[in-house]
Amino acid sequence: MTVDTTVNLNELDLADPDIYTAADSGLGVLHYLQEHQPMFWNKRSEGPSFWAFTKYADGVAVYLDKTNFTSERGMQVGQTESAARAAAGKMLIVTDGRHSQLRDVMNPALTPRVVRRLEGAMRETVGGMLEENAQKDSFDFVDTVAGRLPLSVICELLGVPRADWDLMIQWTRTAFGSATSDDVISDAEKAEANANIFAYYADLLAERRGNLGDDVISVLIRGQIDGTPLTDEEILLNINGLITGGNETTRHASAGAVIALVENPDEWRRLREDPSLIPTAVEEVLRWTAPSLNVMRTALRDTRIGDQTIRAGERVSVWHPAVNRDEDAFPDARRFDVGRTPNKHLTFGLGKHLCIGAALARFELRVLLEELTGRVARMELTGPVKRLRSNLMWGVDRVPVHLELDHAGH
């Protein structure tokens, strides 16, 4: 593996969101670390320092170690320990001890049967947007298609009225810092958007308590752990977690899929000619796009990962775009291959913290690829892609495209 980028490790801070707005979306820096210092101590002058792991085997080791690491002191770089502790033990992604029980409460809302029930709405959303916009000289795929698909699904699951869907996407994009590099969102704006989300769902929760249905909020209201119902705070925190995973990550994976297929026309042609490749293409899109930029754990006691000693209290982070492109785990890792198998990427994590919405995300991407390959003959970018300015999500905020429909097939 050769890397052209030269990085000043003394000045590098992977928590700097500007790194990921570069033309290579930060991959040059991550590849450099993977080759030269795969266990990098990221010293910070402001905020806690952390270990950054960019090799696949080290990422697996962190994910599977349930004894020596905790997620309850923060689960992504840039998060403060105080914020994580406020949700620890209540919100699934920052819960260890009650994780399995909390997961059992939430699982009924995300069963394959529930997911399949949404298929018709998914296809209507994607197909309608493609047909409506395909004849335009250019349109933003993120705002028009990639953002609408997961938003419609998560809002259906939560029972959000259609009239409020646009408001939901606006708030979530602001709250989680999903902004282009020339549109920086202030901490105050993020805080306000988060407050709006919690207030909205608090009202919806109160309304649902008097009128239970089969939506996710109703499932959480009915749920109990050791005979005790979840509190309003626990329900609202987990709704927030579902919004993040269900909306933000799938949006970036969907937009990234289009970029990858445009930039790899042979793979686009291959997929159109052989739809049986769609299941493996979904996994390759997930490997390639890795929307959750990093995951973090805190060492509970002195331990070792490979040859490196990790001291109690130190933070370790796994960088998904890098580990998913590790040549030791994925032959020809820097090639987008819709037929790649096996493909044991870490995009959804591993072990007990495996993403609870993984099946739903896979289903959404399958529908997207089926609708694209079935309806669209040609795709092209019509302008520069805008990368996110974020150290949490690794994705794009604007993808201008022109699509030509396959009239022969319809």
Automatic annotation (TrEMBL):
Lineage: Bacteria, Bacillati, Actinomycetota, Actinomycetes, Streptosporangiales
Recorded superkingdom: Bacteria
Membership in a protein family: Belongs to the cytochrome P450 family.
UniProt cross-references to PROSITE patterns, sorted A to Z: CYTOCHROME_P450
InterPro entries: Cyt_P450, Cyt_P450_B, Cyt_P450_CS, Cyt_P450_sf
Any coiled-coil regions, as ranges: none
Keywords: Heme, Iron, Metal-binding, Monooxygenase, Oxidoreductase
Source organism: Streptosporangium vulgare
Name of the protein described by the UniProt record: Cytochrome P450
